[in-house]
Design a protein that fits this description.
The complex is a heterodimer of chains A (111) and B (112). Chain A has no helices and 11 strands. Chain A is mainly β and 111 residues long. Chain B is an all-beta fold and 112 residues long. The chains are: A mainly beta (111), B mainly beta (112).
């Protein structure tokens, strides 16, 4: 399978709720990272997984958590949603040393 | 703190009018500088990786160069389909792993 697929494409949640975003990476891509992109900004690094272990984290609180699975899929979980969590969430994967392949993102709106 | 600054924020060109985008960075222990193109409503598309000062890479009308403090993305004779936001990212060590830091991007519009 080629490309990075994210689901859902759009999501509306209420403040205080929890959300799970999903990503299916290219076969063989053992590194996956997640980003938050606010309108007009560059992507902000949330965390990265390599072979199912977290091996890097940006400046995000612990209510942002993730998982990577053996089948090259991964999840981003956000607890206790806040209005400022509204953004485009991007998943990207790669084989070590290559550039990242990004998905089209999930647009999350918190109301 | 690692920083990445892109300039200009926005650029309007006529078709065929060559120009350059700038990405200046301050990081400790650079482990790669990446250029991406992002179209509205889509994720970034990988263009180039540069690792050391003096390195250059080309793809069609795009050429990326790297010095110890900045990178340039040169666009030669652009076409309207080159219109997009161009993002620069640097990767540097942090806590035993490598963390990417993106700039805010340059929004390029090429008029026919």
């Amino acid at each position: 399978e080629t490309g990075v697929t994210q689901s859902p494409t759009h999501l509306i949640k209420t403040r205080g709720q929890q959300v799970t975003l999903r990503c299916s990476s290219q076969s063989g891509h053992n590194t996956v990272s997640w980003y938050q992109q606010a309108l007009g900004q560059g992507p902000q690094f949330i965390f990265q997984y390599y072979r199912e272990e977290e091996n890097g984290r940006g400046n995000f609180p612990p209510r942002f958590s993730g998982l990577q699975f053996p089948n090259y899929s991964s999840e981003l979980n956000v607890n206790a949603l806040e209005l400022d969590d509204s953004a485009l969430y991007l998943c990207a994967s790669r084989m070590m040393g290559d550039g990242y392949t990004f998905g089209s993102g999930t647009r999350l709106t918190v109301v | 703190e690692d920083q990445v600054t892109q300039s200009p924020e926005a650029l309007r060109l006529q078709e065929g009018e060559s120009s350059s985008l700038n990405c200046s960075y301050t990081v400790s222990g650079l482990r790669g500088l990446f250029w991406y193109r992002q179209d509205p409503g889509k994720g970034p598309e990988f263009l180039f990786t540069l690792y050391s000062a003096g390195e250059e890479k080309e793809k069609e009308r795009l050429k990326a160069t790297l010095t110890k403090k900045e990178s340039f993305l040169h666009i030669t004779a652009p076409k309207p389909e080159d219109s997009a936001t161009y993002l620069c990212a640097v990767q540097a060590p942090s806590g035993g792993s490598y963390i990417p830091t993106f700039g805010r991007g340059t929004s390029l519009i090429v008029h026919p």
